[in-house]
Amino acid sequence: MTQPGTTGDEPVAEPVQADGEAATARAVVDAHGGLTGWSEGARRLLGYQEAEVTGRSATLLLADEPLADTLRSLAGLRRWNGSVNLRHRDGHLVRVSLLAHRRERPSGDGSGPEWLLVSPVAGTRSELDEDSPHGWSLTQSPCTTALYDTELRLLRANADMERVMGLTEAEMRGLRVSEIVLDAESDRTEDLMRRVLATGERQHMRAALHLSGDPRESLWSVTLAPVHDPDGTVRGVLLSAHNMTEEHLARQRLALVAEAGVRIGTTLDLTQTAQEMADVAVGQLADFVTVDLLPDIEDDQELRAMTLPSPVMLRRVANQSVLPGCPEAVVELGTVAVYPNVSPAAEVLASGQPLIHEVTPAGVAKWENQAPERAERVRRFGFHSVLAVPMRARGITLGVATFTRHRNPEPFTEDDLLLGQEITARAALSIDNARRYTRERTTALTLQSSLLPQGHPRQPAVETASRYLPASAQAGVGGDWFDVIPLSGARVGLVVGDVVGHGIQASAAMGRLRATVRTLADVDLPPDELMTHLDDLVDRLSAEGDDAPDSAPDIGATCLYAVYDPVSRRCCVARAGHPAPALLIPGSEPFLLDLPAGPPLGLGGLPFESTEIELPEGSLLALYTDGLVEARGRDIDQGVDDLLKTLARAGSSLESTCDDVLQALLPDRAADDVALLLARTKALDSRHVAAWDVPPEPSEVARIRRGVTRQLQEWNLEEDAFVTELVVSELITNAIRYAEPPIELRLILDRNLICEVSDTSSTAPHLRRALTYDEGGRGLLLVAQLSRRWGTRHARRGKTIWAEQALSTGDSGPAAM
Questions:
Q1: Distance, CA of 562 to chain centre
Q2: What is the mean pLDDT of residues 608-630?
Q3: In what order do the strands lie in the sheet with 620-624?
Q4: Taken in order 367, 368, 372, 377, is the CA torsion positive or negative?
């Protein structure tokens, strides 16, 4: 609003005594210039009754300015102040100091804003002497200070109050807080001022204000103190305010850093970590955040110092926005994009230093040819300030984090840069941890996968199916394993174990234990003896680790080993601190085998016991590690119960049963490694087994050979008779010559032909090379040459020498019988 020229001769209103609401002239003008409100103070100032002016154009009051020009001059302003000439009802001019506030209409009818006009009525008197020492100290106060009378009208304001309000003391004198500042906080301030007048006690408050000329909200600490006269009577209120905005912003930054420490890096997933950083920064630091990483940081090779290619290639791994759906994003998540050399991301990667970039039309124009889509988004959303920070951890450059503003009108400051660096540094370290962990986990998984069985060859003793689930990324790869080991005499060894701990060390320890179990099983040790030897090995490995300063901690493990014989249908089981297996016998309900628990491996010196049971053909054994039945929030007994219920519904397909068990017990990702091995027993009946008692007489060898020949004819194995006769002759002859009776010969037919000779001697034969003139010593060498493999296994009493031949007829055997 332009101020009319004056000559200094204009008449002014006569002083009017006014108190309370009448001390301020108030008028409300709508967006079209119509008067919609009129106070008693306005009547006293200009003489018009409310009914005479409401509903009429404000032109009635203006002495010499057209209304249209006045409204145009106020367009775009939130507040205006100045001196104007108004016309009194009786026709004379009144020069007034006017303060105008733009506000939305209380009715909310969408008819546009209105203006609240306020002016102190000239000639009002205060109960407090403005020229008292109070006034002198007020003007010299270092705080933002103002003095109000008992009617809450401003009497004095120091220079700092004038600066903050953008008004002079003369322009504010006689007005209330709610008339100077059009804000909800002003009403609260006046309520506390009344309490000061009523109680004589100080009041304190914090107020968030949008002051004129300041685009951002400021936070103030306000103290309201009573002003007493010599008699102790409260004569006014002293308002003292301190701008706490910077302190508040500093606390917000510290809070954001603390929040970043809690929210960033909650998992070891690289992408989720990057997204957590973007989520933390949006809203408080920036309006749009992107995290772009170098494409090769997830490679197995360790990153080294490198020369950035031109143009720069980055993969978008995370972004977040204050707007739903991140409409500002040009690059899709997971996509590798080109970043021009003029982009902030490329600049910070090249320099290694963060930067604050002001978005200018000239700068955007440089993007037009190289990145037209980005230039279009910058213009559409009004980006004005960019903060780019390189992501570095442990001397390695990982990528760049970019923070941008388009809703927040404030450009980034140096304090924002420090905050962005702190958040980015935390995120970069977490991302590097996730990258390293991912690489180690991949290595451990590869190692573990190579050490686990790659398939289940067909066994004459059992039908098997298995599952292995690595632990969640948070827990890390563990040391669970299982194995199916072919043994002599068509038997099979079933093993499942669990090494304590996670990571490559656990996988490596698992591999060593699995290899040891296979070696011990190959010499046909019974389960309890195998556990004793395995316990000794774990104890030695732990002792070796104690002597090496950089070695892994002590190894701990549990294990269960079972040997099933399809001829006798007996199963011998021993365990070392491992969960008991579940058994489902046809026609019965599943149950846990009652076995001696045994100590975990590595304790040393404690005994292991084995249990032998007879299993009907078609029995189902379930061997597993504790990760299957133990889970957070579920009791282990509940897990075992769920396992038994699932096995009770088992069908003919073991593969489907494995899937059903995992779905029932682990509907979500396993927190720990899980190994599950299912084995359904088979049986070799009399059609596949032939046995002879051998008297300890050399003459009996010929009779036994004839019996073997007849049996091979019944099995349609005439082509294998010659070799079998030679093997049988050598083994029986050795037993008669060197062993102790009783002696037994047994032939077992499955996919191979197995010849076994048992005696009661504990002395095991060994292979040797006979000299030219030796009369003996060539028997076992001949057996070894004619057989696929041969060996000796010891029993509680005596031993068995066995030899396994490949069948020349191919499909002969159980499937052809």
A1: 41
A2: 92
A3: 462-469, 674-681, 620-624, 582-584, 591-592
A4: positive
* CA-derived radius of gyration, the chain: 47
Mark out the alpha helices in 502-596 (DSSP H runs). 504-522, 527-547
CA 450 to chain centre: 29
Residue 282 is which amino acid? V
- pLDDT greater at residue 578 or residue 75: 578
Question: Which helix (H) or strand (E) element contains residue 803?
Answer: strand 799-806
Contact (CB, 8 A) for 217 and 208 = yes
Task: Give the C-alpha separation, 2 to 761, whole Å.
Answer: 125
pLDDT for the residue 308: 64
Are the C-beta atoms of 36 and 30 separated by less than 8 Å? yes
Residue 126: per-residue pLDDT: 47
Distance of alpha carbon 752 from alpha carbon 777, whole angstroms: 27
Do residues 99 and 117 lie in contact, with contact meaning Cβ atoms separated by under 8 Å? yes
Centre a 10 Å sphere on the Cβ of residue 175 and count the other Cβ atoms it contains: 22
Smallest CA-to-CA distance from 126 within 147, 155, 97, 146 is with 155
Which residues are CB-neighbours of 150 under 8 A, at least 6 positions away? 127, 128, 197, 234, 235, 236
C-alpha 731/C-alpha 755 separation (Å) is 9
Upper half-sphere CA count for residue 106 (Cβ side, 13 Å): 5
For 73-91, letters b (16+ CB in 10 Å) and e give ebeeeebbbeebbbbbeee
Nearest to 48 by CA among 122, 101, 56, 32: 56
DSSP 601: B
pLDDT band at 462; cut points 50, 70, 90? very high
Of 18-32, 577-591, 741-755, the one with minimum mean pLDDT is 18-32
In whole angstroms, give the CA distance from residue 461 to residue 456: 12
What pTM value is reported for the model? 0.57
DSSP state string for 76-111: T-SEEEEEEEEE-TTS-EEEEEEEEEEEE-TT--SS
Residue appearing with tokens 């400021």: 218
480-514: burial string, b at 16+ Cβ within 10 Å, e else: bbbbbbebbbbbbbbbbbbbbbbbbbbbbbbbebb
Summarised one tens digit per residue, pLDDT across range 564-577 is 999 999 999 999 99
